[in-house]
């Protein structure tokens, strides 16, 4: 028997037009608007013009919530990380209504923005990405940095330990490739938290397309004039497999010589842009500050929407993007090593990796790399002597 509705609308919601936080949309100064919505008014209006499919018609019983208000509510949910209950009080809208609005708007944002701000690059666009990595991070022939991020969720009902990860939380995984400015090139969302980065990568659409030469990558080019042609590559940490088009550091559990340490430093310096992208995503869209208390399907829509919004906002700020001096040059260390499954690809990747290492220690050297690596060696020597 269907449960009888106790009330049609809470009393405070009758005064939505007079008391809703939505009134701020029209009252904020330009600076206040940018701080409140993470974008300018013009950027908001353009975004609003894209998602015309979220419109609802008025009924005989009530006036529909307008599309601007629906977008405002969703943006504030993503920006503040507040709960449905708190948001419903601020905007004088029922919690159940919010739970319908937010997934629909998030899905529309992904559908409409993804082809504009996260489409698969063409060959000339891949070369622009590679040039940016060289100009900003001194890494040649690099097409992107790849890594995974656990998005914490509340344990789904009857899911057991499927979403339970090594950090002792429940999560879905965002696997992402970022460019030299921290924009996402490709993402894969929704894998269960119990899987490793390497397992998620091998099951991802990116891996399948990469293996089948479907990414329209540029042809091999020399790292320097007169050198041998080398493939364009993606870079990741030790959790990922070594492949012809995917490089990773030499593992720390082996005794590394100075040349290998310099390779690791140069790779890690460029690879951290995907970590920076995750950092910018989380601090701008603070929904990731707490566990997502929504269905898995809704959580995926939220993550996808936040990623395209991240790209949309960053794209409009690209001329003012942070320079390399903003980020720390600390050499990141990687501990988790995985086995290689494709021996032929691994062998090709090994020779590519060795060539890059030789290049970084000869023609492609940068003035500060020896000091950076020497500092690490000195620190390790002091630590060893203390023990």
Automatic annotation (TrEMBL):
- Its main subcellular localisation, reduced to a broad class, is nucleus
State whether keyword Nuclease applies: yes
Keywords (alphabetical) are:
Hydrolase, Metal-binding, Nuclease, Nucleus
InterPro entries for this protein: HARBI1-like (IPR045249), HARBI1_dom (IPR027806)
A molecular function (GO) term: hydrolase activity
Cofactor(s) required for function per UniProt:
a divalent metal cation
Pfam families per the UniProt record, alphabetical: DDE_Tnp_4 (PF13359)
One GO cellular component term, please give it: nucleus
Q: Does the keyword Ribosomal protein apply?
A: no
What are the subcellular locations of this protein?
Answer: Nucleus
- Domain spans labelled DDE Tnp4: 146-311
The similarity comment for this entry is: Belongs to the HARBI1 family.
User: What name goes with this protein?
Assistant: DDE Tnp4 domain-containing protein
